[in-house]
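Two folds, back to back.
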Amino acid sequence: MAVYDVIGTTYTSTRRPDARIAARIAAALGDAASVVNVGAGAGSYETARTILAVEPSPVMIGHRPPGSAPAVQACAEAIPAADGAADAVMALLTVHHWSDLAAGVAELRRVARRRVVVLTWDQTVFRRFWLVEEYLPEVAAFDDTRAVPVEQLAGMLGGARVEPVPVPHDCTDGFGAAFWRRPAAYLDPVVRAGISMLAQPGERVLRPGLARLAADLESGRWHDRHRDLLALDEFDAGYRLLIDERETGA
């Protein structure tokens, strides 16, 4: 069973594409006239140029809005598309779910004629995010088991270019660090259900840390400790775009 068959039932209520992040992804895709989206989920950040979505979870496929690109239930390690089927292939916040990273990366590069775009995170940076460092070290330990080192992934992608993706303070896409300036959001079980790093470990693991966060918010301690964050418009939590340019001709 795919991870999101279990945790994806309320996904679209908190995971709405953020226009600023969408602009960065669109810039990375460049002038690609056709795109395959691997680990596509509900279709966040797809453009009209998307010709195929590849997603293992039927629950997530069911969340795709009418008019989306055609979706096929399949995994990254075996993309049902021909060699060079699209100008670009993108894989957004998905590589950590793959069972065989090398096979998945090879498939991305096989299907892409011109470029591969991957959105992931740098765990060495993310570990310093206040939520996991101060309240949920168990989540950091869980992510240690699945996070792919950015340098390793860039190497597998043929020396991909790496670009930081700062998170806006009012980010509409409720992924892991989206609520860095809105800490109370992490106390909402619906928000947590849309974030795999919080949904997968289970509520029993999270309960003590969340109780400490709730207490610190009520007392004002969190705001005193993180007063500097409240003046920022965006925050680098470690999210990174990797762009593998695979120009093979016109």
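---
second:
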Amino acid sequence: MVVGERPVVEEPRLAVRRRSSGLWSRRGLLLFFLPALATVLTGLATLAVSGNLLLPFDSVVVLEGKMASKRDFFEDEKVQRILLKHRIKVHITSTGSREVALRDIAAFDFVFPSGQPAGDLITGMRAAAGQYAKVHRPFVSPIVLATYREYAETLHEAGIATPLPSGGPDQPLYYSLDMQQFLGNIDKGRRWNDLGIQRHGISNANRIVAQSPDVCSSNSAGTYLALVSFTWRGSGPDVPSTAQGASSRAQSVKHLMEQGLPAADVFRTYISPEGKGIAPVVVAYEHQYLTYQVRYRAESARLDAERVLLYPSSQFVTQPQFIALNGRGERLGELLTTDPELRRRAMELGFRILDPAGEVAGDQLSEFLTERRIPVPALRSDNTRSPMPRIRYLEQMISTVGDCPPAQLPDGAP
């Protein structure tokens, strides 16, 4: 365009472009990455506080263990987390304590039989073969009879059971059971109706008996057999000291035993809604009941006053033996007996923690139960401490009572 003799130049036009609203804009990037970054930082902080910050970069050692009832300890989530802090993971092969002792254990790093007879057999066999075996005794748990209030009160009214002081509610959770009288009623074939259980709103024409796990595989059943044998010995020795004596004693008490359920199912049946009708009295470990009450209180804010314990007047305190079979297993055994977190968790699971001398360490369990408003069992001081037979005689008794194949014990077994 020309005005006069001078050309006219158009003003430049500036185009304003709209800001992109795409996903990958700066604002979008911030909105996307900030939550992810916060999650990462939170995770790192959690790992740092728990002592596991470097765990993803460390190798975790998987230990192979073989055990019976004490698998509950290693299957506990808190125990697993504590062990993971030490870069240890445990894989369990579950079997009865008797099977632990009598089957090949070469593929395992440790075994954890629930009682001393099986533990002594394993250590004796390995010592004879010049093989590695180191024993740790981290905790104990007494054998008890778990039942329901109507049955405990019926036994009380018959003079067979006595409530134990516990500082708990008006209704006692714990009773002392006169084993001689209890077995005497079983021997006579008496039934619950004969003792007058109808007064408590129940009719039960079944024989009075304590249901135990299969004696051929379970330590608790084998221990209960030894307890029954000790109580029903008459004028004989406390424990059989010959093969003939073991066979004779087993035959004399076989009718007093009622067993057959797998060990894992006996206590589960007891705490199930159908338990009272299936097995009103069962052989169990004290820690199983205490753990159940702690969980019940946590979930419902009250005790399960329907389920109670009978403490036999003749007492066996089973001593689980953690047996390390190599250096890897030994590291775990040391942790079980020295690590404060693992020891406290075992106590929280109802076990009585042992000190290095093998004695119950302090009063931690009582304090823990009191804090959670669980009555503390106060055992009678006049209870008889019952001895266990030597392993070869106990095995013979188990074979006779359980109709299972006799154990092939090695030469030199105790």
